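Predict the 3D structure for this chain.
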Amino acid sequence: MYIYYVYPIYILGIVQNLIHCIFGAGIEISALFFSIIINRVDCCKYVIAVGHTRVWRLTANMRKRGEKMTEKEKIRIQTSETFLLSAILALSGGFQDAYTYNVRNEVFSNAQTGNVVLMSQHFMMGEWMKGLSYLFPILSFALGVLVAERIGHRYKKAKRIHWRQIVVAIEIIILFVVGFIPHRYDMIATMLVSFSCSMQVQSFRKVNGYGYASTMCIGNLRSGTESLSIYLRDRNIGALKKTAHYYGIILIFAIGAGIGGVCSLHIGIRAIWASSVLLAIVCAMMVREH
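Done. Predicted structure below.
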C-alpha cells in the first residue's frame, strides 16, 4: 500500500479544469464537486482509490481554504440565482417586450426571432426602411451581449461591487432615459431597450442552478417540457422541481407582458419606468448579496 501526501488545491484545480472542459458548466459544477469531496472526506482519514491501494491524504489547512471558497459560491448562488430574483427579472423582461411592441412601432425588444421574420418579410417586399426598423434592434441586442460579457470578464473579481450590479445599474439608466424619448425616435428607443434586455439575459442565466432565460420563453419551454417528460417516465422528483422552475418563470414572464401591455396602452412612453423600478429592486438584492 502506497501512501501519498498530495497538495489538494493542485488536484482540485486539475479536476476543475477537466469539468470545465467536458461539461462547460464552470464554477457552479466545480464548486459542487469540491463541496462533495471536502465535506465527505475528513482531513484525518484516507480515501482508497477504486482499483488501487493508493491512499490520498488532505491537509487541514487546504481543506479550510476549499471550504471557504465553496461557502462564497453558496452565498452567490443563494442570492443571484434565487427564484425570487429570477422572477423579478422575468417580470421585467415580459414588460419590456410588451412595451416596445405596443408603444414603439410593434417591434420586439426581446423576441429577436420575430424581428428576423418581420425584417425579412419587409425586405422581400421592398420596404427597406421598415425592414431596417427590425434589423437595428437585432444588432443592438448582439452588441448588448458583447458589452455584458466584457463587463463580466473585467469586473468579475471586483471587491467593492458585484459585476452584475454594474449591468443592472446600466439597464436602469437606459430604461429611464427611454421614457423621455419621443415617438419620432421610436427606433432608437427600441434599440436601447433591446440593448438592455440582452445585457440582462447574458448576465443572469441560472435559477437555482438551472440554465434559463429571463427575457424570452422558447428555451425555458423546451427545458421545462423535457424535464416534465423525464418525470413522467422515471418519477424523478428532481425533474419535477426543475419543471416547476421553468414553467414558473414562463408564467411570470407572461404576467409581466400582460401588465406591460396594459400599462403601455394607458400610460404611453413613460410606462417603461416600471421596469426601472423592478431592476432597482434586483440591484438592492445584489447589494445585500455582495
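Strands lie at 3-5, 47-48, 55-57, 206-207, 210-211.
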